[in-house]
Amino acid sequence: MKINTWIAGLLGALFCLGAMANPLPRTMAVPGGIVSIQLEKKSDTPPIAYYGNRRLLVTRSEQGWRALVGIPLSTTPGEKIIRIRTHEGSARIAFTVQSKTYPSQHITLKDKNKVSPDKQTLNRIFGEKMEINAALGTWHDQTPATLDLMQPIKGRVSGLFGRRRYFNGQARKPHSGLDIAAPLGTPVLAAQTGTVINVGDYFFNGKAIFLDHGQGWLTVYFHLDRIDVKPGQQVTQGEAIGAVGMTGRATGPHLHWGVSLNRAMVDPALFLAAPLE
Length: 277
What we know:
277 residues, mainly beta, Immunoglobulin-like, Glucose Permease (Domain IIA), 2 domains, 10-stranded antiparallel beta sheet, 2 helices, globular
């Protein structure tokens, strides 16, 4: 037992050393992953970068500046382009997205309306989708102080990011976050310092909180039992913002934790300095 504990500690230390050598977030050039692109610009003014029509987070690096590209889960593999604009002119930088196959998850729901909603519910879902998309499209020029996240609750990971999901045998969109199971009422902590930009109670996502961390980098917290913050409120990393619930489309108490970067849902684990607890 002591040997196993020592080995676990050593692996954890090596993981942390690797994280320090390679600044967060860790990069994976796959759908649902992140690409870090060195812009080789040493001026005091950051370049402006776009992937498609979506502006990218640009932060300092040892060589000057780097752009972080969130890759949507729907992205097809192949060569992609980001566009850079500076005072001196514009440029294009290519990168390649590799393929990745995510595992499948089959979920059975007793409430069939949560699988095939009726017309009235569809109207509600459409309105909520517009509100959610508006929140995820938030942009503030403020640069995040750090790009590390803390795990908002401890618990069993019950739903991995990217899984292809089937509800009652019907295919639905891939899972866009991490599900962490925990007892009802467990405090949910802010994964990073930020501003509450939206809260709501949605058909699929249940009671939800959206935190803005700057330059199109957001974290979301779904299926809450209770919301303890309000829009416009400033929160610090580790501050309690709500409680674990099972509202919306949920089969048990858990937190759905998601990360949005340039309006692409990406794997939250890439922002963690330590492995998922």
